[in-house]
């Protein structure tokens, strides 16, 4: 009985370790799942794009852009982030109360923004919230583009 118990515990341990150690390749282009709606000829909601290029097994370069229609307030950044356990975290250099977590899976990335002040968010435009699910649209290595200027990086 003791031997069976040890075998079961070992199987559970190895299974949980294997599930947590699956590496998700982050390189690609992602688009926010469409949450927009049209009323009176105007588009309302959020539009968002992410580009990711892996530069090492534990390091990525990311471009991020989120826009709120119809006023088109926006938030964006380009940064090199650590990538561990399929997660990258962005913190603004000038606001330690902001953290945006990017958790990758096979189909996309779940983005969660944590900011002390909703109105200013992570120092983005008023009312911009980066949170949402961004589906992968391409697994090819993207040509990274600066969100605000459109310049190639």
Could you characterize what this model shows?
By secondary structure, this protein is mainly beta. It has one helix at 2-20; strands at 28-32, 37-39, 42-56, 59-69, 73-82, 87-92, 95-104, 108-114, 132-138. The protein is globular and about 70 Å long.
Order of helices and strands: HEEEEEEEEE
- Number of E-state strands: 9
Characterize the biggest β-sheet: 9 strands, antiparallel
Structural class by secondary-structure content: mainly beta
Hey, roughly how much beta strand do the residues contain?
over 45%
Helix content: 10-25%
How many helices? The count is 1
Average pLDDT, rounded to a whole number, is 84
Low-confidence stretches: none
Number of structural units classed as domains: 1
Compute the separation of the termini in Å: 62 Å
Rounded to an integer in angstroms, the radius of gyration calculated over CA atoms is 19 Å
CATH class term = Mainly Beta
CATH architecture: Beta Barrel
**What is the CATH third-level topology name?**
Lipocalin
Choose one word for the global shape. Answer: globular
Give a quick rundown of the structure.
By secondary structure, this protein is mainly beta. It has one helix spanning 2-20, and strands at 28-32, 37-39, 42-56, 59-69, 73-82, 87-92, 95-104, 108-114, 132-138.
